[in-house]
Amino acid sequence: IFIDFFSSSQFWPDNNLKVFLHGTVILSTGKVLDIGFGENFYFAPANPDTTAPNHYAFLLYEHEQVLRPSSGDVKKSTFSEYIQWLNVPSDFKLVALNWFKGHSSVWARVALTAAGLGGFAPSCAKVEPLDFCGTKVATTPVANTASCDAFIELKNKAKTLFVDGTGLHAPVLAQAQVDALDRFLHISYDVPDLHSASTCSPYPYNITCGRSLTCGAQRFVVSPGMDVRVEQVRGQNPDGTKFSPKFSWSATAGKKYTLVFVDFFSSSQFWPDNNLKVFLHGTVINMEGNDLSTGKVLD
Fold this sequence. Notes:
This protein is of the alpha+beta class. It is about 15% helix and about 25% strand. The strands form four sheets. The protein has a six-stranded mixed beta sheet with strand order 10-5-4-12-13-14, with no helix packed on it. It has a three-stranded antiparallel beta sheet with strand order 1-2-3, with no helix packed on it. A hairpin with a 7-residue loop joins strand 13 and strand 14 (about 295). About 35% of the residues are buried.
């Protein structure tokens, strides 16, 4: 809790003020108040494991009935448990997904600390050998009418990762779910320049292990399984500017859509050592068509 207790000056009673709350992070629930690390529902990636990239996935579900999540605490120790907690209707169907592999860097120290998760921030010794803003990413937009071969390739990659569990500790989807995929989920990033996050920047942008960090503007479209560094998909700059990726898909008239952003981690021992199986980054439910603003963002 960040709080101003004022002083003994008469200024405060004269203005009928006793205290001012500047910000709060609730660690027991993982909920961050008044910090945020991106626009809308986007809680940006910050992989703390320097040994392997994490698999960050966006899953799009279609349904006709209104989604009414269960009351009480969110259940999210496993992905299937979270889906059950959402109290999904019988017609709830996965229709599209896309994902990337997010590699750690010194930026993970900044992002995790800003999100109130500094206990997971990697040490300077671990991030020092890692590249920063150096992974090449796709820059050519994918057409809405992508080829049949591209869709087959997407399904094959999805089977290997999510159904077979190759690169994960366990499978997270069933083959029938991958077979039912019927459209592309287009995700585009337009991340502005990052200028000199360094020891002279405000906290936590100064915990850069003595390095001055710069990263040019990142403009790219996500292709399934592509490699990025976490700073290339960040959601905020040191000046407080927030941003998030843009999404589009072919929507069916009369249907509602729910988008879930989840980190399925990797096969690294880091995750079982920390008793973690999945991390939910954000969910938007009951969207009309492909307009995120019509949906409800879950805390």
